[in-house]
Write a structure and sequence with these properties.
It is built from 17 helices and 13 strands. The chain is α/β, with parallel strands linked by helices. It has 2 domains: about 220 residues, Rossmann fold (3-Layer(aba) Sandwich), CATH 3.40.50.2000; about 160 residues, Glycogen Phosphorylase B (Rossmann fold, 3-Layer(aba) Sandwich). The strands form 2 sheets. It has a 7-stranded parallel β-sheet with strand order 3-2-1-4-5-6-7, sandwiched between helices. The longest helix is centred in the C-terminal third of the chain and has 18 residues. The radius of gyration is 22 Å and the shape is elongated.
Length: about 425
């Protein structure tokens, strides 16, 4: 196994993290030789086509230390004489005093394994997410002496204590984050010049212009207005609010709703739909590949994501699927939470409604359902905005430069 950069992620492969797969594939195309390190084994029933094209080997660390104790002990034995082990242990003890949890212990055990099993060819550690993966990466960097870089996204920013984010940003060589909202939150915690805003962006070659849609207006029961959502069924996505809004739509408006995604709240949402009397109009499609997501977006008339700030502070950054919906000329109805307003411009590419307000959400859905021409205008403006402001090539050129990769003709364009 030979690799120049080890890229640490929570789990690999994951259907919900197309932005990571997109980045790894593009970096490989620019000459990077990565090793993917995953803290968890995959649980999704399928993978994206991008995953099949990625050549990098994958190292899965022990997700639960008690299941592979000899691997952890063997890792400790292999790194025991390294001078960095003491520094890493002292850092871990400081962290443990402030966060006395079993998860903190697991992070150090995983770092021992990683430090012991990293190929000698690895010269750099790059970590996606500031919480658990960054802890494993930081302890490993202390043990091995390798430089560390970080990529911050959403939950990891809003649910990690400031002291921990500050120390990780101080310890890394460079860091990027994927929205202005996140950048503003992290900038006061980072040393000057350490943090850069880099949008994930969208590769429009994978999301070509869609064919024209029929001008559905909800008047035909045989061809109802189609609302679609792609999101994990977790509190911050606000899918319960969407069901409440659907139940408030006018009785003479014919509509259907399709959801694609997994998540812990799926069964509870199904029960809620039955209680609200809308279950017969709702399709729960489960997790899907990018091809299946694209098919759903092209089949829909409107994309809806009523995101909220969850009880633990978790919230969305800029969900890639919002950009994907806009690329397919779908008008977006969403809430101004997290970084969503950075893409969805109210009354220009979609509508933004107050969070936690199903009545306002229902009003916005009904208004656009009855106005196909307005939807067409918003949708076309959305694709233009993605093309002008959120091109994948811009962000990947910045990341590639950080890894010392040469620009390509596509980057220059």
């Amino acid at each position: 196994m030979s690799a120049s950069v080890a890229i640490l992620v929570k789990g690999y492969p994951r259907l919900s993290e197309t932005f990571i797969a997109q980045e790894i594939l593009a970096l490989e195309g620019r000459g990077l030789d990565p090793l993917i390190v995953s803290l968890r084994r995959p649980t999704d029933p399928a993978v994206h086509e991008m995953h099949r094209r990625i050549r990098a080997p994958v190292l899965h660390l022990p997700e639960y230390l008690y299941r592979e104790p000899w691997r952890v002990l063997r890792g400790l034995a292999r790194v025991f004489r390294r001078p960095g082990l003491r520094r890493a242990f002292r850092r871990w003890l400081r962290d443990l005093r402030r966060d006395p949890t079993a998860n903190r212990g697991r992070r150090f055990g995983q770092a021992l394994v990683l430090a012991a099993e990293l190929p000698g060819s690895v010269r750099h550690l790059h970590v996606h997410y500031l919480h658990t993966p960054a802890s494993v990466g930081l302890y490993t960097a202390e043990i091995t002496g390798l430089p560390l870089s970080l990529s911050a996204h959403a939950k990891d920013i809003w649910t990690t204590p400031d002291w921990e984010k500050r120390e990780k940003l101080e310890a890394c060589r460079w860091a990027v984050t994927c929205s202005r909202n996140a950048f503003a939150a992290l900038l006061p915690l980072a040393p000057p010049g350490r943090l850069t805003l880099v949008y994930h962006g969208l590769d429009l070659a994978r999301f070509p212009t869609p064919p024209p849609r029929p001008p559905r207006d909800g008047s035909d029961a045989a061809d109802p207005f189609r609302i679609v959502t792609v999101a994990r069924a977790v509190p911050k996505k606000g899918l319960d609010l969407l069901l409440e809004a659907l139940a408030r739509l006018p009785s003479d408006l014919h509509w259907c709703f399709s959801h694609r995604g997994g998540g812990s709240e799926l069964e509870a949402l199904r029960r809620r739909a039955r209680r609200l009397g809308v279950a017969d109009r709702v399709r729960w499609l489960g997790p899907g590949t990018q091809a299946e997501v694209l098919e759903l977006l092209r089949d829909g008339d409107l994309f809806c994501l009523p995101a909220r700030i969850a009880a633990d502070g978790d919230r969305d950054g800029l969900p890639n699927v919002v950009l994907e919906a806009m690329s397919q000329e779908l008008p977006v109805v969403a809430t101004p939470v997290g970084a969503i307003p950075e893409a969805v411009v109210h009354r220009r590419t979609g509508l933004l409604v107050p969070p936690e307000d199903p009545a306002a959400l229902a009003e916005a859905l009904a208004a656009l359902a009855r106005d196909p021409e307005r939807r067409r205008e918003l949708g076309r403006a959305g694709r233009v905005r993605v093309a002008e402001q959120f091109r994948f090539e811009t962000g990947i050129a910045e990341i590639a430069a950080r890894f010392g990769l040469r620009p390509t003709g596509r980057d220059a364009a």
